[in-house]
Amino acid sequence: MADQLSEEQIAQFKEAFSLFDKEGGNTIETSELGTVLRALGLNLSQAEVNKYVKEVDTGNGKVGFPEFLTLCARTMKTQPSSNDTDAINKAFQVFDSKNSGYISAKEFRHILTHIGERLTDDEISQVLKDAGIADDGKITIEAFTKMLNAN
Question: Average pLDDT of 48-58?
């Protein structure tokens, strides 16, 4: 089923998965599965998440990336696709863990240096500058959207 995903979708799923792969072992905790799926715009009830966990958990409390990818493909097949605005809002909510309405530039810098295609300090400074955000400023959902749409 994962073979039905585009390279871009797989890369997006890998990036989200990597956020939660704290040990770098290409696994995430089953307790975080729902959060990761929701961050990707795959809205599942807790009952659905629990069902998936039962299917993939081998008793170690972890889910590997191949299993995660299969779950994403299956979930996408059963759900209508969300638009870019919804995806951006969901991503912002993941990074705004305190629900403060903003992400600090420092937190954003950390995200961009540790997730996906890692940016250099100069590249990050340029992204922030292009969005009109000081290195010590706060990034609102509007600024976050502007940055993502510009890049």
Answer: 84
